[in-house]
Amino acid sequence: MADSLSRTLAHFVDNLQFEHLPAEVPDKIKTSLLHALLGAFLGAETEHAKSSIELVKLEESRVDGASILVDGAKATRCGAAFANSKMMHATNQSDSYRMLIHPGPCIIPAALATAQIERRAGRELITALAAGYEVEARIAGDFIPSTQARGFRSSPVYGTLGAAVATAKLLRLNVDQLVTTMALACTFTGGTTEGPRSGGREMLFHEPNATRNGIMAALLAREHVRGSETALEGAAGFYNAFTGNNRGDLSYVFDGPDHVSLDSVVSDLGERWELLHVTPKLYPTAGYNCPVIELMTEIRATHNLPISEIEKITVDMNWLETTYPSPAFPNPERSANAPAVGSTHYFTAYTCVHGNYPPLRQRIDPGDGANDDDAAVMGLMKKVEVVGHQNRQAFAPRITVSLEGGTEYMGEYRGNELEWNLSTELRRVRPLFDDMPWPREKLESVAQIVTGLEIEQRMDHLIAQCVKIDIL
Predict the structure, then answer these.
(1) What is the pLDDT of residue 368?
(2) Which of 53, 158, 216, 354 has minimal Cβ neighbours within 10 Å of its Cβ?
(3) Of 82, 88, 53, 334, which Cα lies nearest the Cα of 193?
(4) Whose CA is closest to 306, among 371, 380, 357?
(5) Chain region(s) in the chain for CATH 1.10.4100.10
(6) Is the pTM of this model over 0.85?
């Protein structure tokens, strides 16, 4: 009899060693780690991150615990990870896999706190992060749109499992305990899309709570609790609950067939790495707007567009990107796909007018405000048309700028342009260092330590560059 999905994944995680990772995997993990830490420095300036830090310090302070980034106070493992997750996700600039899940702010805070407490070396942290990212991406995969169609928000649903696996790897749990970790994570996970559908802000705490729940799943698995062997694929298991069935039938898909074999979750483990498709989000907006901003920036840099002569801008995108959070539960303010501040129309127009979009600009979400005082942007926004296509990949927009007189300029992405590595991350973020709310010398030190993370014997040197006081 074949092993269950959980046991197959558990064997993969248990056998995973740094020495056996292909070079591009540690490089990608370092990319996500650096991106998350920079995001924490930005997120710490937001009011909801500040309130989360103060709550954790009040309720879960612990002198021998894990460090709260930026602040420097110590708290329980779960408390510090909760606050750090909140900072990493506060500006909407975390990483993204297949548009709708954000592994970084769930997996990285859990792993970082555990690595600090358990005094793990850099190689072990990289390996644990790789395990968490790969397992989460494998379990999520083609199922993400169907999860959203059930009224659940995919990021915390799958992020709980990623955080649990990374924590369990750092705790050095055995295969049976890893199976239990995943079973408990399947039970502990959740988060609905009613907030993004109706304008509620509870999703601001989805990833932090998923991080906490994932850590608890791994810690409890040490107590020799027996977890269900078929927690994922069982008749009443994870897939039935969060996608509607355990047969691989999909209610919505990004593109392609509406059925997937559950065997694909564990096929080619260690050979095909899904984590390589993770995308760092440079801009403080929804992930699907980031390639639109990038592509529009490239078009403006290539062509001298006379803004006053633009007749129309057409943005062709994947259909699910135009129906966030789900076609089953559309946001009424977005259902008509109308231009508004914070919409894809807005970011297209802003980038076209100014030639770029500032990565350090304050986060703007749809519904945050009815107007912008930039008349050129507001005027051009009304000339932008966004069209969804079911046969178009996510993160693969096509932009056509039509001028009066019939001239057209067009650019198009394939979908993988933003799946960059560490060298690209460094090239893109270093020009921002002087304007970030953190000392330039510490930012450079963080970049240097992350780049050579495999030689670090403990996490204290890295964390010392991420807090206001010296903790060594």
Answers:
(1) 67
(2) 354
(3) 334
(4) 380
(5) 5-281+420-464
(6) yes
